[in-house]
Write a structure and sequence with these properties.
5 domains, binds magnesium ion, 27 helices, elongated, single chain, binds adenosine-5'-diphosphate, 46% helix, alpha/beta
């Protein structure tokens, strides 16, 4: 009785919050169960497809209680989005991520503690810093949410070692439940997530898996039709599909160059298309993305850099022009079609050559230790970082210039960097960009004098001081755009004035960096001392090989429901045939009633009386009978030895026939 009414109260409370802050009337499937589980204090793992509404699963329960929710999230862009979204709803939220200066971090942490902060987003690298630990006891944490939780598993497709630090955090927060969220994780990865997040150094025997409650949304997408085509000409097939299926589309490609090529070829066919990849500037990317979301551009041809955090309901087709390297990615990317529940198509194109290439991928992605060492040494030379130096520093890293100077293979470098990142040596992220920063380098009196002498620069100084509290005392990230807006000035003019102030020594002005940044996690080691965990490295390589085998098998399988195959891959054995994928349709077309079978059987026997025919001739002699159905009966009769094929390829009735 008592517990019943508690949970009724909780139900009411969470509905009120949903309505009050988001204006939504009801929860989506599983959201309520997940929230109630969290509120009961259980560690919970939630598997829901992208766009399924995972954020609310931690945001709502955290808001029912005093205190704040600590959200661990790997991507700066997503973090910023979330913080902005919460602030729009008048919920106090902050974020701490790589790229912020120490002063900025301190400032944010202080604000978090002294304000009614409800959500703090933190990138995993930041968790174990002394600074964070110093402030943690001052935070009244009521829930820890781990977004993209598959990143904690080295068996997953996107392992990020800093995620392993989350477990240690739990020691500092005894009794606080953890909610782990991910869109796709195999059974093995699900178990690994629970294990890794429970393991406490002080209590290694704790039997973790029993304590977890796991919620998994079905992988069924009733309105999404999967199909796979082997093609000679990708572009022709893409044009064919886009001509048949109207509406918004995404074409995923492996290479940046190809996105542009395909987009141009589509334009030649009068299909509205644009291309997108991470090599484009921030502004250009936002523009292209917005135009696509607004349906000004119909088709976006992109690399897999596109789509994170995008919530466009009316995508009708997702075409993969190249084979993705695992089903996790495929499922997520294909799943961007048809969020509105209307019929949509996920089409995967491939050729044999590509599959053979894919099989080579593990050797490419996991370079040898010697290669890794060579790359590390070259980077240190290129950036002029002496041994023992560099820890915690950012460097501009122009990878193409680097490749040119050192004449290294670009793949080897890319994957050696990845290995070095996973082993905790350095981190390279093209997405990291540092905002512009300003730091006053004068005293108040000098500033006053300066303003008197340079009245033209006075407005910009005043605006800086007014818009950025504390800017006089420590370096602060600023937005030139916002200052320009406040001053009703052109942004280029504002930048020019900031540069002048910089030259006069009034401020230190660092412009926004679009160049990719390389970050030394540890000080530079001598190559001899560079260590990597060899068994772990080898195991991850094998894991990739097995994921690729699964992908290739998915492509090659023609007699099983594709949706079901995906479900089974993620550990859901309970799914029914979708009835709309290529394989289901093929099956439907050729499923025969007993009467049909008998009719076709009789026709074949009659047609082959006293003569033998080639398969093609036989099929056309059967007239109106569907080819697939006829084939099915022919195969059956052949298997039963009732008909046979001679050396010249002609089919005749078996002499052994009784
Ligand atoms: P995920 O993290 O699972 O990819 P998000 O949490 O970003 O998904 O949510 C995707 C979208 O769904 C958001 O725009 C969110 O506002 C919306 N949404 C989530 N839950 C509900 C709900 N119960 N009712 C209506 N819209 C919802
Ligand atoms: Mg999310």
């Amino acid at each position: 009785m008592a517990s019943g009414s508690t949970s009724d109260n909780q139900r009411r409370a969470i509905h009120t919050i949903l309505k009050q802050y988001w204006g939504f009337e009801s929860f989506r499937p599983l959201q309520e169960d997940i929230i109630l589980s969290v509120l009961s204090g259980r560690d919970t793992l939630a598997l829901m497809p992208t766009g399924g509404g995972k954020s609310l699963c931690y945001q709502v329960p955290a808001l029912t209680r005093e205190g704040m929710c600590l959200v661990i999230s790997p991507l700066i862009a997503l973090m910023k989005d979330q913080v902005e979204n919460l602030r729009k709803r008048n919920i106090t939220a902050y974020a701490i991520y790589s790229g912020m200066t120490r002063q900025e971090v301190i400032h944010t942490l202080k604000t978090v503690i002294n304000s009614n902060c409800r959500f703090l987003y933190v990138s995993p690298e930041r968790l174990e810093t002394a600074l964070f630990k110093e402030y943690l006891p001052g935070m009244h944490v009521n829930l820890v949410a781990v977004d993209e939780a598959h990143c904690i598993s080295q068996w997953g497709y996107d392992f990020r070692p800093p995620y392993l630090r989350i477990a240690a955090l739990r020691e500092e927060l005894p009794g606080i439940p953890v909610l782990a969220l991910t869109a796709s994780a195999t059974k093995e990865v699900q178990d690994d997530i629970c294990n890794k997040l429970t393991y406490l150094p002080s209590n290694p025997n704790k039997n973790s898996l029993h304590d977890w409650k796991v919620f998994r949304q079905s992988f069924e997408r009733a309105n999404l039709s999967y199909s796979v085509f082997k093609v000679d000409s990708r572009i022709n097939k893409i044009i064919e599909i886009l001509s048949k299926v109207p509406g918004s589309g995404i074409v995923y490609c492996k290479s940046r160059r190809r996105t542009k090529e395909i987009s141009e070829l589509l334009q030649l066919q009068n299909i509205s298309a644009d291309f997108y990849h991470a090599g484009l500037g921030q502004q250009e990317r936002s523009r292209k993305q917005e135009e696509w979301i607004a349906n000004t551009t119909r088709v976006i041809v992109c690399t897999n850099a596109f789509g994170m955090g995008i919530d466009k309901p009316d995508v009708r087709t997702v075409i993969h022009a190249d084979v993705p390297d695992c089903l996790e990615n495929y499922y997520q990317e294909a799943g961007r079609a048809g969020r509105d529940g209307k019929r949509s198509y996920a089409v995967l194109l491939y050729d044999e050559h590509e599959l053979r290439e894919l099989e080579q991928l593990p050797s490419l992605r996991f370079p040898s230790l010697d290669d890794i060492k060579q790359v590390y040494q070259s980077i240190a030379n290129y950036l002029r970082v002496p041994a023992g130096d560099g820890e915690g520093q950012y460097f501009d890293f122009d990878i193409s210039d680097f490749l040119k100077k050192f004449k290294l293979n670009s793949y080897t470098v890319l994957y050696a960097l990845k290995a070095l990142e996973q082993e905790g040596w350095l981190s390279f992220n093209e997405q990291v960009f540092l905002p512009a920063r300003v730091n006053f380098t004068t005293g108040k009196n000098q500033l006053y004098e300066f303003e008197k002498n340079y009245p033209l620069l006075e407005p910009v100084i005043k605006t800086l001081l007014r818009a950025y509290e504390g800017i006089f005392d420590y370096p602060s990230p600023i937005s030139e755009m916002m200052i320009a807006r406040l001053l009703r000035e052109d942004v280029e003019k504002v930048k020019e004035q900031l540069r002048q102030l910089n030259q006069y020594g009034i401020i230190e002005y660092q412009q926004q960096k679009d160049t990719p940044q390389l970050f030394f996690l540890k000080s530079r080691s001598r190559v001899e001392d560079l260590s990597i965990n060899k068994p772990g490295y080898a195991a991850r390589k094998e894991k990739l090989a097995s994921r690729i085998r699964e992908m290739i098998q998915f492509i090659g399988t023609t007699n099983q429901c594709r949706s079901k195959m995906i479900g089974v891959y993620f550990g859901d054995e309970s799914m029914n045939d979708c009835g709309i994928c290529d394989n289901c349709l093929r099956k439907k077309n050729i499923s025969l009633t007993q009467e049909e079978f008998d009719d076709i059987h009789n026709s074949i026997v009659a047609t082959l009386q006293n003569r033998s025919l080639r398969a093609k001739e036989l099929l056309s002699a059967l007239g109106s009978i569907k080819k697939e159905k006829a084939w099915k009966v022919i195969e059956f009769l052949q298997a039963e030895n009732k008909i046979e094929m001679d050396e010249s390829g002609k089919i005749n009735l078996s002499s052994a026939r009784p």
